[in-house]
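Take one protein record:
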Amino acid sequence: MELISLLLVVLVVLFLANVIKNQKKYKYSNFPPGPKPLPIIGNLHLISSIKPQKSFMELSKKYGTVFSVQFGTEKMVILCGYETVKDALINHAEEFAGRPVTAIGSRTSRGYGIIFSNGENWKVMRRFTLSTLRDFGMGKKSLENRIIEECESLMQKCRSYGGKPFNNQIVINVAVANIIVSILMDQRCDYDDPAILKFMTLFNEIFRIAGSTMVRLYNSYPWLIKWLPGAHRKLFESLKEMQEFATETFTRKKKELDINNQRNLIDAFLAKQKEGKPESTLYYHNENLSMLVSNLFAAGMETTSTTLRWGLLLMMKYPDIQTKVQSEIENFIGSAQPQVKHRQKMSYTDAVIHEIQRYGDIAPGSIPHATTKDMTFRGYFLPKGTIVIPLLHSVLRDKAYFEKPEEFYPEHFLDSDGKFKKNEAFIPFSLGKRSCAGENLANMELFLFFTSLLQNFTFQAPPGAELDLNPAPGFANIPLPHEMCAIPRNDTYLPS
């Protein structure tokens, strides 16, 4: 009993210390308003664990487009609506360019890589990534040809099911992953490769549990939560396996490196290590490479493959839209292999792809930002290090820019003459200094994979199946598990 009593006293003291620390940090009277937090859990009771973005939208009705919520003892600021998000990420780009330093981040990314790093490390890694992606084909015909080759492999895989139902998650994951793998390692994986299948299962598990309540609470109470069972433990195990995979990969590449014949991003990084400059030691070390490979694999695979899966699900749900896309493919491409150059002529298909990205809303909360210094934003004081969530969901559902924000409506991107029109609130890749470095690659992949799939197949739900457009619980908006039937179309429209 004495031991239990002592433990309870320690827990109470630690909790109060956290509260006092938090109160000091946010003692300013003009910090953004928000709901009153409860002890220990903060506002977690008000935030849906399945659709937190919906809870934030409801709170914004009461507290405005800039408000605060508290997870455990950690306060964060939510930005809602296109005008507010744009103001922050464009007009105050430097001030909102940080990433929060959290217990989860310290345990997993340790400040390395590109997605969760800060300061000069982030700047060096982002410059290297952008320049190297360009060097190895992003935006060039060579990469387009590589995607076209993968399209043909994907068509063969879908055709192998003979029109019978199958779950497309791993199939689409591997097809898209092969593009980023070709840039990172100059190789591809077979669709039935046990190693890649295990890795994809691991990766999908990480995305499923990353937004869980226990993971959120870990940031406030790591000293307590780490001893408890829950999703956070599975997250750490899965991330460790991913890191081991990345480390094993670049270690193997190191033995094969030819500085005069750099064939992929890992080669380019390893060559930087050997330059002997101060930057080589400071930034081009193995920890950064391991995390960078994991970051780029995640960013290059998950969002694009999930968007494609939403696209096929929506085509099954709205067969009339699928038919119109196929008709446009027949008119402008015919039996030829789809190419990027076709996109500018295909207004309806382009609008459908944009609407899939908008409606799918893959990253509803974006990746959290942090203020890089004390600042005032829209009349509120935000101290340095404040966690900020630019709610992309609120932008892609902004009624001021989208006529039917809750519906799948390709006409959001068509003018009165049926021509494609841009919409400034379409920012699925975010804005500003932390916007997605692979946006051009993703756009190329989405068009080529989507048009190739609809050129070759008509997608239908299995007999009697109900199509549910609600996303699965998790950090990202991923379709619920489902099966589809890929019905081969007339051989006239198979790739030549």
Remarks:
- The beta strands are 66-71, 74-79, 369-370, 375-377, 380-382, 387-390, 457-460, 471-472, 478-479, 485-488.
